[in-house]
């Protein structure tokens, strides 16, 4: 083999080696990027889980607070209704007057003859 041919082969081998080294370097960088992305993704997923957990806890506290407020207000209204309720029961005459008033009102609302 001539010296020139040998030089061409050496240059070709060097070029192939450089390409292979470059390819290996690219693979290392891609792997490094992939690992960085996976690490960042895992961290963001954990952050999302924490946010979701905190939101659920806050909603539970708000719900419990609303339930307490509604219960307290209902108790206040029941007490107020008990305090304002008539202290005497209607007698038979009161019940009869009420029934007559209901009959008259029903007739008026339905186009009946009471007037």
Can you characterise this structure?
The chain is mainly α and 115 residues long. The chain has one domain. It is 88% helix and 0% strand. It has two helices and no strands. The protein has helices at residues 3-84, 92-110. The protein is rod-shaped and about 135 Å long. The relative contact order is 0.03.
Q: Estimate the strand proportion.
A: under 5%
Strand elements, count: 0
How large, in whole angstroms, is the Cα Rg? 44 Å
The topology string of helices and strands comes to HH
In helices, the fraction of residues equals over 70%
Low confidence ranges: none
Biggest sheet features: none
Walk me through the topology.
Blueprint: H1 3-84, H2 92-110
Short synopsis of the structure:
By secondary structure, this protein is mainly α.
Notable traits:
115 residues; mainly alpha; 0% strand; rod-shaped
